[in-house]
């Protein structure tokens, strides 16, 4: 076996391996040889894998829209999944409870209030029952979905936002302010709305062409957009001023943008030679990217999805069958490829589940709802970190965004900025608000976990309980039993109860044991029925309030139309007299 020269002069890497030479790393000064022996980068997400759903867990027989618009056509939250459908003569989308899987009935109720095709849908991040939709009819509408789902076609909206002169292509909710929506239309305008009052907060008219995407940063102080003129812009949404702009990608096809934090951006697009690319930017200087990577030469538009908690970016191309995922870091090159989920079925769109809707028992860090191109199927795909233990993994689930607004729309528009309110994935309550700083010692501050557990109850609203004290133990026992009824212990207990019921039916009414069992069962049934009736009464009150709002809105609409008709009639009479 030959040896290399002391300084490795005159050798190439290929020559080294072809000659089977023995390389002395300490003696070789060539940095290119040293780079061959670098270790693998450490990451707890290196082995993340995608888990497709079984056949019975699919949403089947859904007439998915055939519209060629560059949108996701799907949105999900812990309660519902919304999918844009194909309907003749108008626009519609179906809203299904998250657990209602299987084959869909052809006559399933839909949201049918738009006069044109629906182009985008987004759930309110602070209310899982309210969804916003934009359409080809130049409007944005907000809808209320009851917890039980739709029982008939819904064509009465909560509020209608009118202001765009052409069709509205994209909408985005503000991440921290309540009832603030950003919309972009084919009239080259970006509008900020207060959905609570229906007023326009600001109109941004700095784009010379169609806007392809828009995204807020983490606290909502910046709005990033990509445009058909190949430029990316960072905008102050309250003033409408362009903070920075630059050429995004040289290709002529659509570019997409997301915020990675409050300062950095990620864009997807195409190069001059139609290669798909991703780029990392600093939003204060958009003249040159921090890093740019070529992906492949496919033609489908890449849609980026970012998880703030795990700092992972997922890329899904329209028409592709795979999902690539990367990890974001603070040092150059800022992005590292992890792996990809490969499937043989191409996708038309994706819905991304909120982190508080993921299953912590399965170590699920993300869930997507994939719309198939060739079949009328919506398939849930879970991204899972393999762990041996089934206990709660604190390193996988840091505090995530809670369904609680940090400030109101008017406060935000007046210049106040706040980070999002966070919640614990383990306890399910907010842990970043109402911190009793006066009671925190230095030792408690160091141990943040113990501090959060100790004062987590302060983030809950105190609700008075007027139930009799002697009934509380029985009611709490019933509630705990209902929560844990799917456990193995409860299944065995249910079998034993069924056997006891069988014996009970065979007893005669005169037996003392029979009478005691009857009295206990009647007492428990009364408690259970009372609890269920209170719960049903609360739900009915909420739905009744929403129906009252819808009726009031319909009455105002009828009055406006009657006034318009009377005005037209008076004008017609004047013209006839002339």
TrEMBL record:
Spans of repeat WD: 111-143, 161-203
Stored PANTHER family: CORONIN
InterPro entries, alphabetized: Coronin, DUF1899, WD40/YVTN_repeat-like_dom_sf, WD40_repeat_dom_sf, WD40_rpt
Keyword Repeat: yes
Coiled-coil ranges per UniProt: 544-578
Listed GO MF terms: actin filament binding
Family indicated by similarity: Belongs to the WD repeat coronin family.
Domain DUF1899: start-end pairs: 38-102
Statement: the UniProt record of this protein carries the keyword Repeat: yes
Alphabetized UniProt keyword annotations: Actin-binding, Coiled coil, Repeat, WD repeat
Name used for this protein in its record: Coronin
